[in-house]
Amino acid sequence: MEDKQIKYTKLTKEKDLDVLLEDIGDARIVMLGEGSHGTSEYYTWRTAISKRLIQEKGFNFIAVEGDWPECYALNRLIKGYQNAGSKIADVLQVFRRWPTWMWANWEVAALIEWLRDYNHQRSSSDKAGFYGLDVYSLWESLDQIVHFLENNDGQAVEAARKAINCFEPFNRDPQTYAQATAFVPTDCENEVIEMLQRVQSQRTFTDDPENDFNTKQNALVAVNAEKYYRAMVRGGGSSWNVRDSHMMETLDRLLEFHGPESKAIVWEHNTHIGDASYTDMADDGMFNIGQLAREKYGREQVRLVGFGAYKGTVIAGKAWGAPMQVMEVPEALEGSWEHMLHELGTDDKIVLSKNLRDIPKLQKRIGNRAIGVVYDPKYEMFGNYVPTVVPERYDAFVYFEESEAVHPLRMKIRGGKEPDLYPWNY
């Protein structure tokens, strides 16, 4: 059978990652995906890969599909900053926006504990960081800007307060704001842009240059979040492109901040890190951070690693803001990429794309499973497979025959049920 031409390495222990580390080579950016936002194996094996990249190849930070303010709290913890907290489980309580389980889970707690231990004996410049790339935290970022500027610059803080005041009539509800801008020809764009300009023009206010970077990044989040919420009401792929453009801009800023020799690890869903130009996303004019990174830095400097599973369990919700629950993930559909890997044998596997490019059936689009934070196994065949040219979308793929759900911390969601606002849930 043609499928038998697929070569793979069995994945049973961390030593088996050698083949992947060798393929990564001297790349500056390594993006580690996931086929869902609630699978334990994706977190634990991304952690194993990230540890080796940091220890053996000098990678400087991990940047994830999470909000900047919350992830920066973890960054402060692992670097031992003053008043950053000491108990990891307590600091993880900052993740109170649904879906909380994405980052407030025991798998992430284990990663944070390792990063804190790794950083303990290192100088400030050698410590590994942890940052959020996403754009959802409009109000949290605005609040952090005001708090910082109140103690450092009385003039710049007025621009930040003006931006917040513009949003107050919408009760800090992104859905209300987004809908209002669809019907009223006024919005808060000018206010947040003015705030960003004022913040970026300021001198460094502290001996800690990362704190200054944090303030400016929060201003950038506010600008791009406002764009994102306005774009959502227009529909189509524009809001997705705003979001991934912001994530790419943030990655660029982090690399620049850490210096010309810096290296980045990115953790995001496959739909973000797998090059969108080799999927049906491109048909709708959509792009993603994986595609943008390849275009800017070159394919040799960027390694895109997808993750997937044949069956198992996952944490997800039946609707946006719904209670999280453990769900059964059925066997992958026949003809899909995951089903093809299953037919090779029941081993967990690492597959390198360089070994796939001579297989004719993989040079066309086939289904690649994608489970979001909203999921219902009964409807999987209708929308959970992304048509994909696998050897081009990824540089490597990590496959699990049977996966298990991530282990979340039990937390209350801030503000109760979130609105069913987001057109994409990956």
Automatic annotation (TrEMBL):
It holds the Pfam family Erythro_esteras. InterPro entries: Emycin_Estase, Hydrolase/PRTase-associated, UCP036794_erythomycin. One of its GO terms (biological process) is response to antibiotic. Gene3D superfamilies: EreA-like (biosynthetic domain) (3.40.1660.10), EreA-like, domain 2 (3.30.1870.10). It comes from the Bacteria. This is Erythromycin esterase homolog.
